[in-house]
Fold this protein.
Amino acid sequence: MAFYDETLETIRENAIENNTTEEVEMTSLFLEYIEEDLCDTATLISCSTPDDYKKSGKFKLNAYAYSEDSHILELFVSQFFDSDKLETLTKHDVEMCHNQVVRFFNSCITNRDLLDYYKQNDPDVAEVIELIIAQYNSNQIEQLRCYILSNGAQARDNTWDVSILTEKNITQETFVIDINYIQALEEAAGNTYIDIQLKDYFQKPLECIEIVENAPGVRCYLTVVPAVILAKIYDMFKTRLLDRNVRGFLGMRPIHKAMYETIKVDSHMFFAYNNGISSTASEIDILEENGKKYISRIGNWQIVNGGQTTNTIYKAYQDGVSLENVNVFMKLSVISNENPNQEDIIANIANYANSQNKVDAADLCSNHKSLKDLDHISRKELAPINSARKQTRWYFERTKGQYSAERSRISNGQPKSAKTKKFDKENPKKQKIDKTALSIIAMSWNQHPEIASLGGIKCFKAFWSEYKDNLSIDEKYFHSIVSCAIIRESIDLVFKQLGYKGYANFVRNYVLAILSLKSDKKLDLENIWQTQLVPQSLLEIIETCTKIIFEFIKEKSEAGMDPTNEVKKIEFWDAVKTKVVAIQIPQSLLVSESEDTLTEEQKTFIEEVSARPNKLWNDLIEWGKASK
């Protein structure tokens, strides 16, 4: 109950601070926990059934995400219980939420009046509907994932068959994220070191084959684990065994029915049908006997792929199903603690092993030197002490889920602890910049808002292809990225003050690009870094630009075009340029000409010369006179 109480307190505090509802804050909090598994960054939305449409059944939506790269659409619906005691999320609750979110999807593609209604009443929802219609009509949705988020606790694990939606054969899966899952994530981030002495579980060690490769600091072994032993080990360590895979295991709770049936009625075929599990360790003891190798001990053991297999075997074990003839193939990668890239290697193994979750381009380049340098700078650079955000960090998230993982490790299952509060104060979640956000900022500032508007993964691919070999990562670059992020925050604020709804992401991209264009990239970003604020005179220009972009997008929508598609065209950007000809950036907001033309080397030289004592210059003058 302590975890529930602390989580509920956080949700209520955030609702007051942000002037939102508790359901919105619960949705936002839970999305942070599961962001590592999502196809793209999720966007919060608030959509419930209008009165005129209730006769067709109620629908609801709290957030959405779409990846043009993997063609996955994710829709989220939340069930918040406003209760001081932990409530039960019943089967009826789950089925109701599931029906609501699926009904929303079906309504988008079958009821064209719905789009017209929301264009008039809620452009934010209209933007989602336009996205779904456009991607559906162009056959760009291959999978629909429905997530049910709740601060209640499931009464029982709910299982769902993978279903097919519409004549376009879209596969649909449903996942339930309840308070127990969120708590498990917190607990799993604590002490996960597991040391298995196999003699304690087996009559003899596991026979294995070592795969010889020229990979320094990494050894790979293949072995077969009796299912009953895997079930018993999991029964002892629970989620600690699956720390690297806990999201794919706990949140989705997949009991694979076909796998379960194989264990029950055709157990001798399980090994042939199942792909097995992939695991990592940092230590291993090998015994050699009669030319064969045996694993006698595994230190720091983690199952990184195989949560579904492990869960199904454990369920069969709990149900009393015989596991006598069931064996599981296992690949074990041993990465020593001395390996400086241990964490990165383990993270990559976990990503690549989980083939059901497409590994995107942003994940593949996480270990590039430029991004590591940016990661390092972001940890040591604090906002200036006299600024509006003094002594806080702008956290660059180099690997997916890095921020949440670090926070969870610090909290160690206690989200309201003093250490957690200190982390939150120094690293506000609103000041987190991940790789895709970096690419969107960079492409907008480099005057490619049409590419920034493609979305996270596609934008990152374009950014990385264009700039990865030309990035000069230093404090100045980091400051410029943060300053652009602060400008984007200000664009959001102006957008809301104007009472606008819908297309906010696109407006941010284009307004930032206009500021770059009209200042010839000479906007004084360092001043924004130093103050952590946007000057009032710049806010006035932002307001003008925001009005121009929003009205232009609205024109496209009213003309029957799909704005979410139009903003991704170079022709749209070219047209915008003609609309902002009269906008001028005052000299006071620009970097001074002399400062702008000096190189870093020249600036350093000037500083060194200026630091010389006056006596030196006087002596040089006297020497000059005497030498005439």
User: Anything to note?
Assistant: Confidence is low (pLDDT under 50) at residues 246-254.
